[in-house]
Amino acid sequence: MSRRAVLWVAFVVVHVGVACLGFVLPNEPMGDVYRVYQPWSACALWGDVDGFCPGTREIMGITERWVYPQLALVPMILAWLFAWAGGYTIGWVVLVALIDACAFALLVGRGRSRGRTTAAWFWLALIALLGPVGLYRLDGLTAALAVAGCLWLAGRPVLASALLAIGTWIKVWPAALLASALVAGRRRLGVVTGAVAVSATTLGVIAVAGGGAHALGFVTGQTDRGLQIEAPVSAYYLWRAVLQVPGSHVFYDGELLTFQVTGPQVDVVIALMTPLLVVAVAAIAAVGLRKAWLGARYAVLFPPLALALVMAFIVVNKVGSPQFATWIAAPLVLGLVLDRHRWWGPATLGLVIAGLTQVVYPVLYAGVLSTQPFAIAVLTARNVLYIALLAWALVRLARVPAHRVARRGILAPAP
Predict the structure, then answer these.
(1) In this structure, which long-range contacts are made by residues 69-72, counting pairs with CB atoms below 8 Å and at least 24 apart in sequence?
(2) Which of 51, 155, 249, 338 falls 20 to 30 Å from 210 in CA-CA distance?
(3) Does the predicted TM-score (pTM) go above 0.90?
(4) Tens digits of per-residue pLDDT, 312-343?
(5) Total domains, the chain
């Protein structure tokens, strides 16, 4: 059996196995699919669904403000095309598996590149270790779009940036990869063209549909959120709750459907997190811009810059859902494709993060919610590794070689 055939057999085994785990593991790892994706999409298609939108046809992001960008509704609706296979939840996982297969085919190619083969095995291992939350969430779908976009950026920047822009209009985080491409790339016009085309088309459709007032509702929706329990910044309040310090505890936000923490000065922390994230992203981008201006090669600069920005989106964030672990796949896959020896260390760290994330959710999630010490310790360890991966990316970014050369007496970037 050829190397490529073995990879495809492994792809099927991993996806079927992880999909089945969603039905047997505790704490409803598929819950978002049948509790929110299904009624949101059904309501948009047919109106009232079991009292979810009684008396009116609500379309999230159009008639109502939504925490997600508007294109998130598209895959939720497309999943109905496969619902005949066993219901909406099965239809969703089939859709995600098909999109994964397209990106996987692009990654593997003919199976002759050792770097691409290594990256393909890594991605499969990440999916397996992360478990059902990687397939039964929007983030898993956008991760596949991001992998394909990163692989195409150098040769097909317009198509690549269009894919990343679509991902951004589904779950925002691929904007970190678009920003990295603009900073590190040599074909910036193509990157801008693809992203602007997708964004303009999306905004135009939203306006025509009558959703102009909610076009950017997902931005304010994020800034209004509290501290989600899985976010690194929440560790202080979680450990206070573990130690039963008065005033700190976990509670459920029924509007956003998330568990959050509260405690002393929590409103101050909430208010500071979004500006802090903006500052962190701007500082990392500034380092990347300087490296690019000094002549750093795209293949050396883009992967650590992309990883650093993605990790900033995770670490310096008041939201910390377990599916965020899917975000690390794209920059690590590209790093392995381009320089597998240097990138195997952070890739291994990424696999440990994925494994711990599945232990936290769904396996130990009841313990997290009840602030049991062991469960909170595992969650804290996972978040410490997130910070470690960010630190590696920042160090690698700082060490990217760049040399300015003189042309006609003027300092300019190297070609």
Answers:
(1) 69/168, 69/169, 69/170, 69/171, 69/172, 69/218, 70/169, 70/202, 70/206, 70/211, 70/215, 71/166, 71/169, 71/170, 71/202, 72/138, 72/169, 72/170, 72/171
(2) 51
(3) yes
(4) 999 999 999 999 999 999 999 999 999 999 99
(5) 1
Contacts of 48 (CB under 8 A, 6+ apart): 54, 55, 56, 57
Instruction: Give the structural domain span for 343.
Output: 3-402
Contact predicate 375/364, CB 8 Å: yes
User: What are the pLDDT digits (tens) for 276-295?
Assistant: 999 999 999 999 999 999 99
Q: What letter represents residue 232's amino acid?
A: P
Strand order in the sheet with 249-253: 227-228, 258-262, 249-253
From 151, 172, 160, 162, select the one nearest 329 (Cα to Cα).
151
**56: exposed, middle or buried (Cβ count in 10 Å: 0-12, 13-18, 19+):** exposed
Q: CB-based contacts of 153: which residues, under 8 Å, 6+ apart?
A: 160, 161, 181, 185, 191, 302
Rounded CA-CA distance 18/108 in Å is: 21
